[in-house]
TrEMBL record:
SMART domains, per database record: THUMP
Keywords, sorted A to Z: RNA-binding
Origin organism lineage: Eukaryota, Fungi, Dikarya, Ascomycota, Saccharomycotina
Protein name: tRNA acetyltransferase tan1
Annotated GO MF terms: RNA binding
Length: 310
């Protein structure tokens, strides 16, 4: 009897380990990775969900209204009476059944909005992923969030467990052939133009790999450098410190995502690290308070000396 209980426990552990099939990202997925405190993945997703929903209205409010208007117009295009006249009795019964099912599971406007932002369980420690759909452009969306966080007048800390955000414009299967095809969509618009043939950018490539050993890191970097420069056709140069543009490559299991961010990513944006941006603002605020105190103390000392002389 004593030997059976540990075996049962091990069986439960195995079930938990292999229970999730959603820990994969399909090719063509765009979205935002977020790192977070260990074992706080669910709380981090909840925090980001609230932040993203609020920011979604602020950044894409007009486009969302247009989409909603277009959907309403599509739904109102045909009158129900006209459809019923054309349908046979059998088709009418089928339609009534489908309408009953729809009424039993209504889709609210909020549910439609959530489809634009959908969190996928990666079953990966310290990482969450939010899948995005049009009109959201992940790198634009994240930069808007970072700009708000950088505002020195905004000292409200919106997240507790979230650390770093990383946008991916699009993704593909983990083969070099597919990565280079993806580069045509995500990297070429930033680097391949008539202007960049004359004067190029300084750029760098940052590769992050999680549960990924399909392609060596340096193979990805070397192939993307060759793609960007096109054997000297474009005047771009690799500069790991003072780059104008940074190519982010996120590798997770059998999925590779790519996006391009500007040179401030590693400077004022703190590599899109929410925690570090807030801590830097807090430190600056404390330093300013200390400066004010010192000035007040010096002023009081000087006033005291003047009064004593008088």
């Amino acid at each position: 009897m004593g030997n059976k209980r540990p075996a049962s426990g091990k069986g439960d552990q195995k079930k938990k380990k292999f229970k999730v099939s959603s820990g994969f990202l399909d090719p063509g997925t765009s979205g935002i990775y977020a790192t977070c405190s260990r074992r706080k993945e669910r709380q981090a997703a909840q925090e980001l969900g609230l932040l993203f929903e609020e920011k979604l209205q602020e950044v894409y409010g007009d486009q969302l209204k247009e989409l909603e208007k277009a959907n309403n117009e599509d739904g109102d295009g045909i009158k129900e009476d006209d459809v019923e006249e054309e349908l046979s009795i059998e088709d009418q019964i089928k339609q009534e059944l489908s309408e009953m099912k729809a009424s039993a599971n209504p889709v609210s406007k909020d549910d439609k909005k959530k489809e634009l932002l959908h969190f996928i369980d990666l079953n990966c420690e310290c990482v969450v992923f939010c899948k995005t759909r049009k009109p959201i452009i992940p790198e634009e969306f994240v930069q808007n969030i970072m700009d708000e966080l950088l505002d020195p007048n905004n000292m409200v800390k919106r997240t507790r467990y979230v650390q770093k955000l990383t946008p991916i414009t699009n993704s593909c299967s983990a083969t070099m052939e597919q990565i280079l095809k993806l580069a045509e969509k995500t990297i070429a618009p930033h680097f391949h133009s008539e202007e960049t043939e004359k004067e190029g950018f300084k750029f760098a490539i940052e590769v992050t790999r999680r549960n990924f050993n399909t392609i060596p890191k340096m193979d990805i970097i070397n192939n993307l450098v060759s793609f960007v420069c096109e054997n000297g056709k474009y005047k771009h140069k690799v500069d790991l410190k003072n780059y104008d543009k940074l190519i982010l490559v996120e590798c997770f299991k059998n999925n590779v995502g790519i996006s391009v961010v500007n040179g401030e990513y590693n400077k004022s944006y703190k590599k899109y690290n929410v925690q570090q941006i807030y801590e830097a603002k807090l430190k600056k605020e404390e330093e300013e308070e200390e400066d004010k105190k010192e000035k007040v103390e010096k002023l009081e000392e000087s006033n005291g000396e003047i009064n004593s002389e008088n």
